[in-house]
UniProtKB/TrEMBL annotation:
Glycosyl hydrolase family 31 C-terminal domain boundaries: 558-627
InterPro entries per the UniProt record, alphabetical: DUF5110 (IPR033403), Gal_mutarotase_sf_dom (IPR011013), GH (IPR017853), Glyco_hydro_31_C (IPR048395), Glyco_hydro_31_N_dom (IPR025887), Glyco_hydro_31_TIM (IPR000322), Glyco_hydro_b (IPR013780)
EC number annotated for this UniProt entry: 3.2.1.20
Family: Belongs to the glycosyl hydrolase 31 family.
Recorded superkingdom: Bacteria
Domain DUF5110: 645-700
GO molecular function: alpha-1,4-glucosidase activity; carbohydrate binding
CDD domains in alphabetical order: GH31_N, GH31_NET37
Residue span, Glycoside hydrolase family 31 N-terminal domain: 83-148
GO process terms (BP): carbohydrate metabolic process
Keyword DNA damage among UniProt keywords: no
Official protein name in the record: Alpha-glucosidase
Residue span, Glycoside hydrolase family 31 TIM barrel domain: 221-515
Amino acid sequence: MYIAKRFVLIIAFVFEISLTYAQVSWSETAPGVWKAVAGVPENYDLLKASGATPNKEALSAITQASFPLDQTEISIKVIDGKTYLRFPLQKEEQLYGFGLNFQTVHQRGKILQLHVDHYGGKDNGRTHAPSPFYVSSKGYGVFINSARYLNVYAGTAVRKDSKNAPVAKDRNTDKSWNSRPYSDAVEILVPAAGVEVYVFGGPTPLDAVRRFNLFNGGGCLPPRWGLGFTQRVKTLYTADEVKKEVAAFREKGFPLDFIGLEPGWQSKSYPCTFSWDSTRYPNPAGFVQDLLKENIRVNLWTNPYVSPEAPFYKAIVPYSGSHTVWNGLVPDLTTQQGRTLFFDQLKNNQVNIGVSGYKIDEVDGYDYYLWPDVATFPSGVTAEQMRQTFGVLLQRYSAELYHQQNKRTFGLVRGSNAGGASFPYVIYNDYYNHEDFITALINSGFAGVLWTPEARASKSSEEWLRRFQTVVFSPMAMINAWASGTKPWSYEDVAEPIKQLALLRMQMMPYWYTAFARYHFQGIPPFRAMNLEEGFVPESKKENGSANLEENPYAEAASKEIKDQYMAGDYLLVAPLFTGQKTRKVVLPKGRWYDFYTGAFAGDGEVITVTPGLDKIPVYVKDGAIIPLMKPMLHAPAAGEKVDLTVRFYGEKPGSYQLYDDDGETYNYEKGDYSWREIKVEKDKAGKWRGAISAPVKGKPNTVGSVTFEFMTK
């Protein structure tokens, strides 16, 4: 009898917990951003790890939004020390996000465990940046602020109390039977007794993404040189070999802004000493300064595991985890003592002599590389939470080293997460599928991160050229030759087209720089999915919930998963070709589009087939687009250096463009030391196109020399 009563009491207690936290309240914590707190959230989460501060002024500038979901349809419960989340889904709703996925853009119908890991060729949630943020085609976003491994059922699980349950079908006789029935909910399991949940309003999917980025401080604004060209040299190169490679770039007329040194710059690596190798680099300070005199920055590879021969090894032992990685200590970067010991070594040994940035490796996985989930850390942060945020912590505190010196940096990292949008790092990995690289670039815009489809080596000159074309239209134009030693000119038969592409990257510097300024100040991802582009969804699908595909082939194409074309900045649609392809289809959104190279009309809300030839990557420009270009320099302009602009105008309707400007190297823009200048193109009374740029803003940076206009209309 006693046991029975106790059992009833336990059941009642569990029910009481569920009931208590099912009725949460939503409060608008920033313009268009609502927060709910379930149970007792953990002391450590993604936002605390990143230290992100919302840009409320920029958030308030976005179109006003109301709470986008029916709050009565949202269920949040805490049962048995775990939090159960449920959000409604409509029948025609598509989902995007859930991290940096490489093979899929549409996420509805997926089951994922969001888990920082080296990408293993499957979109199962284990990836370099498993951001627990998703976006709906209905124009809202949801973010779960947890540093745990989250289990996601994105429209896959059907509840018996579903208001829109699928109809049971007989597999024996009904050919429409489906092993994966329709589900009307996103359900997420958080292995913690509480969590913060955020909902981001629209009204468009892009607005929801913008709010997410601005809530996390806005996107990063790299230095101008970071948007130039970078070459990573072979692992064991010496100082003299690096200088010879830099000289070769100059002599052959290939642009170069920063050089990447791989593990051989350190006296020992895997684990690391974080100290220069005296045989390969006998005078590190002199070496770095010599390159700076030639406008070449130095970026250093490292991983964060401390060798027994590192100068601070003994001191950091008490502030490291219980388990090692490659027999190196794992510093607990959530402790002040651990951070100070680790980052002081980087500051004193490298940053203070002029090193401009880092490539942070091996903070993603695999499980047999990194510390196990049974590891412990002095701070009390669990091994799981440390795994989910270690890359974020390294980005945050290494970037601080440069912020303290008022010098911008731009680097590479292998692991990140939500909250890290403002950090000046681009994700890379060892996976090398070209098509999947483009899908990752598309998905990076949903995950609040940047991704580079780097080039390393190729089996043919055709592959090399195709890879290089996508490198040029990405956040970081990089050859990573740590193993291959490949140079831009290594494939002689395509060396000249490669050079022209590299020079095009430099010509487009004003356009790229403004796109990143929009990322920082307005939250607009510089590279993003077609699903975020106005006019991409067929009108009949938006208004009626379905489309007559027989009458409108475009509707069918646009409703499919688009994984191989993307938007770059405000005006450019990039449609890469891959090895062996001679032609491809391009889905153009509603509105008139023009060929980037010639200005010829390409189409309007239709599917076109193009045969660009080997030398061209198909790029299309919106009607009324303004593309500012500079002369093709071999280095990015120095701080305050003026450059002449050629402004291209495309299309038939008047255009307006806000050109961003600052000194290009410091953080003075955070104090208001920047300007936006309006470029306008319109027809005069005689019907001729005329262009104009507004006057420089008094007291603000002005790096614009003379301006000429090129009208690309045909």
